[in-house]
Amino acid sequence: MTKHSRAYDSRGRQAQADRSRDATLDIARKQFLANGYAATTMVSIAADAGVAVDTVHKAFGGKVGLARAIFERGLAGAGMISAPQRSDDMQNIERDPRAVVQAWGMFSTEVAPLVAPIYLLIREAAAVDPDMAALLADSQQERRERMRHNARTLADRGHLRQGVTVESATDVLWTYSSPELYELLVMHCGWDSARYGRFLGDALAAALLDLPEKSEPTWSSAEL
């Protein structure tokens, strides 16, 4: 077997493993949301995935690991390139702060539907399961660190309005990007994604920015 064929076989095996992993996560997510965390078993997930229970354990380490993997996959968004990476790429191009925060609102319309339902499941299970409580704390901290990164970008460019510190901006970004806000406005009040995204962009601009005159963004929504 040549080096080329071995490399091809390796890529093929990895692609198959990735597809199997995603399929297992899809099944676990469906069962968690339909039946609840406590009632869902590794046996039922493995059975629907058509794999051995040991295979799921080795890949994810149990139900908590599955919940974590589903949550982290949601944070990456639905594109081939992760939402955080696309957000950073957009920030490197776009210099209008209003356009930047409006783009963050658009990213939220992609990520929130994937993250919010599983986050709410984690939060509910955390009340009685210490491992899920630890996962909840980790997920909150991870999202907060991302929001601090965004706040620092605005601060470094001099876009935060007077009196708004990086920590205060982090608080605002963390709150407006929260699954709880998505739960209230979209899941309970029935807002559609477009309205939700516009609201986030406008609210963040009003709360954080020393607003300049409106200008046309240099990025395209198709690039997100």
Word description of this protein:
By secondary structure, the protein is mostly helical. It folds into two domains: 1-61, Arc Repressor Mutant, subunit A; 63-213, Tetracycline Repressor, domain 2 (Orthogonal Bundle), CATH 1.10.357. The protein is 75% helix and 0% strand. It contains ten helices and no strands. The chain has helices at residues 3-35, 42-49, 53-60, 63-75, 83-93, 97-126, 130-156, 166-176, 179-188, 193-208. Helix 1 crosses helix 4 and helix 4 (63-75) packs antiparallel against helix 6 (97-126). The chain is globular. The termini are far apart. Residues 41-60 bind DNA. Pfam families: TetR_N. GO terms for molecular function: DNA-binding transcription factor activity; transcription cis-regulatory region binding. It comes from Cryobacterium algoritolerans. Residues 18-78 form the HTH tetR-type domain.
Question: What topology does this entry show?
Answer:
Elements: H1 3-35, H2 42-49, H3 53-60, H4 63-75, H5 83-93, H6 97-126, H7 130-156, H8 166-176, H9 179-188, H10 193-208
Helix pairs in contact: 1-2, 1-4, 2-3, 4-6, 5-6, 6-7, 6-9, 6-10, 7-8, 8-10
